[in-house]
Write a structure and sequence with these properties.
This protein has 115 residues and is of the alpha+beta class. The chain has one domain. The protein contains 4 helices and 7 strands, in the order E-E-E-H-H-E-H-E-E-E-H. The strands form 2 sheets. It has a 5-stranded mixed beta sheet, sandwiched between helices. A two-stranded antiparallel sheet has the order 2-3. The protein starts with 6 loop residues before the first strand and ends in a 6-residue tail after the last helix. 23% of the residues are buried. The model has no long low-confidence stretch (mean pLDDT 95).
Length: 115
């Protein structure tokens, strides 16, 4: 699809976690990526940002990159977008983990890099 945006999957904050009681928990890795996008709303507007529930399986992620790649955060690229070195699953390249995602955002969209 020519106008397809990369899809960024983040875990929804406040998910149940026995260690954290009724307040729930959040994923610090997802919060890192969300924080970068707070600094760069123009970049956020170029992504399709979707929040998913923490318990596995995560059907929306699995449908695009398979069960073995459902860790979040994950940025799933449009079909045919294949940056060098990006893993591919089910015909889609993806970038997984906060460090790799913020590096990809810097390379692709010109955001600053962490110091």
């Amino acid at each position: 699809m020519p106008n397809e945006k990369p899809i960024l999957f983040l875990l929804r904050a406040g998910f149940p976690d026995a260690k954290h009681g009724p307040e729930g928990a959040y994923c610090p890795e997802c919060a890192t990526v969300a924080g970068i996008l707070y600094y760069y709303p123009d970049v956020a507007a170029q992504l399709d940002i979707r929040q998913v529930d923490a318990p596995r399986p995560r059907p929306a992620v699995v449908a695009l990159v398979g069960e073995e790649n459902q860790s979040c955060p994950v940025l799933v690229l449009p079909e045919g977008d294949r940056p060098a070195g990006a893993p591919v699953a089910m015909g889609r390249a993806f970038v997984s983990g906060p460090g790799a995602i913020v590096t990809f955002l810097a390379d692709r969209y010109g955001t600053a890099r962490p110091s």
